[in-house]
Amino acid sequence: MNIRSFFPLLSQTIDGKPLVYLDNAATSQKPQVVIDTVNELHTSLNGNIHRGVHRMAEQCTARYEAARESVRGYINAAKAHEVIFTAGTTAGINLVAFAFGERYVKAGDEILVTEMEHHSNIVPWQLLCERKGATLKVLPFAHSGELRMDMLPALISKKTKLIAVAHVSNVLGVVNPVDEISRAAHALGVPVLVDGAQGVPHGPVDVQQMDCDFYAFSGHKIYGPTGIGALYAKEKYLNEMPPYQGGGDMIKSVTFAKTTYADLPYKFEAGTANYIGAIGLGAAIEFFKSLNVNDIQLHEEKLLRCATDRLQSIGGLTIYGNTPRKSGIVSFAFKNIHHLDLAQVLDKQGIAVRSGTLCAEPVMQRYGLTGMVRASFACYNTLDEVHALAEGLERAKSILS
Ligand code: PLP
Question: Which of 24, 37, 228, 380 could cross-link to 277 by cystine, CB 3.0-4.6 Å?
Fold first, then answer.
């Protein structure tokens, strides 16, 4: 099976050179079936969900709920109503920071994050702490990129209200021991939110096995459309937390004296949902599941190993994140070459990578860097592309140094 043939964008050239797309951690490309699904809805089947009784409204509603079921199955949530459609990971984390914060967090409490979080899993908690007079605590990581699990017990206290941690670091690529963190946190009655933005694209996730209380991810990183994602939350929290936003579809009844809220999951889906995005996300998940996901995981591991071997033999290049459990990401820096210059010279060779602080300034500060270059892999990347990256870097180094 030629996976690349499902992705029309990949066959293009950049300045006459074949596109080598290695910026998948920022966003992935879309298979034809997702493009067709979104087109079909816009051209022949568009009716606002949960409102109309006409045929198109009913069909869109059914397909929206089928997409929720696809997400539920993919992350192995126990119940479909524990899956809330959001605009993406950032939106999901902000929902929890607001609604959980309103219900459970007060002055003097603490929220624990890790030093390797994306800004999306730092700033919403800082805003919450500012609002409530709570304190943000930070679990550090070792030079290798491994979380300092030995420091966790001392950082969880009676004041800790929630722990927020990335499933996979978007810079270091390390897979964090989220099940171990859940066990330690739950032993003290503390819930755990997992930022799954970089976890979900590389294979099915099991939120029940992880036993996390919240899990947020974005559709566009798993071959789906932009502007859609999902938040998993345990029913207990969804029942106890107040709504995040008010509006249509999240209510049971409205009077000027009192409003009552809709049942789950609609209590947290105010306004017209991005139902076309959600149905597109459902198509993306079904597409991904139709590939042999075990084979894809082995393939991506091979790409990562090959990239690590090739890149660490380039003089002056340092790879950040050297742990046994890594997934799909290799980030690096040269001692005397600026990351932006490198990325621009690679772009001229048709190679798309990410450069900069990677939305994780504390990680850059940890290593004393202003930025890194990141290559990240998806199911459609090839070993030839990894070799093209290594050769492109050698060329860039000789031009820039
Ligand atoms: N968390 C991590 C680990 C990420 O890598 C990203 C995006 O790169 C996000 C959160 C934010 O995702 P989005 O911008 O889709 O909301």
Answer: 228
Query: Kindly report the CA angle at 159 between 363 and 107, in degrees rounded to 5?
Result: 95
Q: Is 225 in the pocket of ligand 1 (CB under 6 A)?
A: no
Residue 60 beta carbon below 6 angstroms from any ligand 1 atom: no
Distance between Cα 263 and ligand 1 center (Å)? 29
Query: Residues 226-240: pLDDT tens digits?
Result: 999 999 999 999 999
Q: CA 230 to CA 368: how far, in whole Å?
A: 34
What is the extent of the structural domain holding 331? Answer: 3-27+293-400
> What's the rounded Cα separation, in Å, for the pair 56 and 346?
47
120 lines ligand 1 (CB under 6 A): yes
Catalytic residues: 359
- What is the Å distance from ligand 1's center to 175 Cα? 15
- Cα(359) to ligand 1 centroid in Å equals 8
Return the closest-CA partner of residue 17 out of 384, 316, 394, 397: 384
Given ligand 1 and candidates 218, 327, 355, which is best to mutate, with the most ligand atoms within 8 Å of its CB?
A: 218
Q: Are residues 228 and 174 in the same domain?
A: yes
What's the CATH number where 256 sits? 3.40.640.10
Q: How do residues 81-122 score in pLDDT, each as one tens digit?
A: 999 999 999 999 999 999 999 999 999 999 999 999 999 999
**3-state secondary structure at position 160:** strand
Does the beta carbon of 89 lie inside 6 Å of ligand 1?
A: yes
Confidence of residue 173 (pLDDT cuts 50, 70, 90): very high
Pocket lining: 23 vs ligand 1, CB cutoff 6 Å: no
Can you list the positions of beta strands (E) in 322-399? 329-334, 351-352, 354-356, 372-376
Question: How many folded domains does the chain comprise?
Answer: 2
Tell me which of 238, 272, 289 is where a domain ends: 289
CB 145 within 8 A of CB 172: yes
Q: Quick one: average pLDDT of 276-282? A: 98
- Atom 8 of ligand 1, residue of closest alpha carbon: 26
Average pLDDT taken over every residue of the chain: 97
**According to the model, what pLDDT value does residue 203 have?**
87
